[in-house]
Amino acid sequence: MIREGKESDFDALIKLLADFSSEAGTSVPTNHLKNALLPLLEGTELGEILVLDLEEEIVGYLAIGYGWGIESGGKEALFDEIFIRSDYRNQGHGKTLIRRALAHVKNQGAKTVFLETEASNPDSRELYQALGFEVEDSIWMRVQI
Length: 145
What we know:
Blueprint: E1 2-4, H1 10-24, H2 30-41, E2 47-54, E3 57-69, E4 74-84, H3 93-107, E5 112-115, H4 122-130
Parallel strand pairs: 4-5
Antiparallel strand pairs: 1-2, 2-3, 3-4
Helix pairs in contact: 1-2
């Protein structure tokens, strides 16, 4: 079952966020993860998190952030993180989660959806392209403030 995350999912999601961070090689501190996750579970306009709940256990999630873009013509959604626990991968759960998230953000008024994927992860790009995402020439840059 795919559903919106709620505050009671906090501990299970923190574990999965830490697993994602570890797999991605980013080693984000747990306190940082907690501060970023809580607003998504409290019903803020900033975004939300969808969870993949199988057999009463959360085995995946998709974090959504919202913004506004001139080129997008209004509200944008960013699929910030998509993660399925390794023992549940390659079973169609990721595809189902992304499709549900696309419908969800459309209902929320988003005009465009962005996501980021690593150059070293061609399998994810193949999945995203199969779901209608297009590769852009843009290069993302960032600064921590």
